[in-house]
Amino acid sequence: MSRSGVLTFGGVLDPPGDPVNTTVLPSTVPTAVPGTVPSVVTTDARARSAALEEEVLRSPGRFRVLTGDRPTGRLHLGHYFGTLHNRVRLQDLGAELFVIVADYQVLTDRDVADDLPGHVEELVLDHLAIGVDPARSTIFAHSAVPALHQLMLPFLSLVSVAELNRNPTVKDEIAHSRQSAVSGLMFTYPVHQAADILFCKANLVPVGQDQLPHLEVTRTIARRFNARYGKGCSPSPRRCSPTRRCCSAPTAPR
Length: 254
Known about the structure:
- The relative contact order is 0.25.
- By secondary structure, this protein is mainly alpha-helical.
- Mean pLDDT is about 80; it is low at about 1-35 and about 245-254.
- The two termini are about 25 Å apart.
- Helix 9 (about 190-200) packs across helix 10.
- The strands form two sheets. Strands 1-5-6 form a three-stranded parallel beta sheet, with no helix packed on it. Strands 2-3-4 form a three-stranded parallel beta sheet, with helices on both faces.
- It contains ten helices and six strands; from the N terminus they run βαβαβαβααααααβαβ.
- It has helices spanning about 40-60, 75-95, 115-130, 145-150, 150-155, 160-165, 170-175, 185, 190-200, 210-230; strands at about 25, 65-70, 95-100, 140, 205, 240.
């Protein structure tokens, strides 16, 4: 997960209520090249994006948003205008906001977590400084909620190695990794993200297009969990843009 990307969904110990289908807000809505006619996919994506934004504006209290960052360094103005401002906007609209400080995920692609406690503290303070209100929103670190990580064991039993190996985002991250060997933690990262989302029962997830395969893993795990153990997971998290007001459906027609 990128430094400014959406984090896993953390929540407090017993998030109340059953969420509506989880919505993922896409990082961008496809735009047409000047001088060309917009494609059907582009037009459809814009329409769904506008419809989702309208839904958020009309009934913000129905949405539980999960976002966050890995504490790998200091935030800057680029992060504020890129993602942080939209988090505060969603909070102020009335959505339930969960911000996860993904300190455990720092270990996915590095051997040493330099000054991790200091980075965690700075990340929390930065969110408070920009307007995230702890009276209305929840900020927590991965390491503070052991119950979240206990979901990894049953969740890993619900996906195959072949399915994880086909994940294009993980394959790309592994290909561009500077490490001589890739850890099992990076290989199973989509399952960790699924644990974040489903633990928190988030139904709106601000992530970029590259995170869509992870969301598909989340939906797969939720469906299989419900089939094996009974209803307990919301199977359809929706995606929204981490940077823009508009939202869109999680997948485009294939």
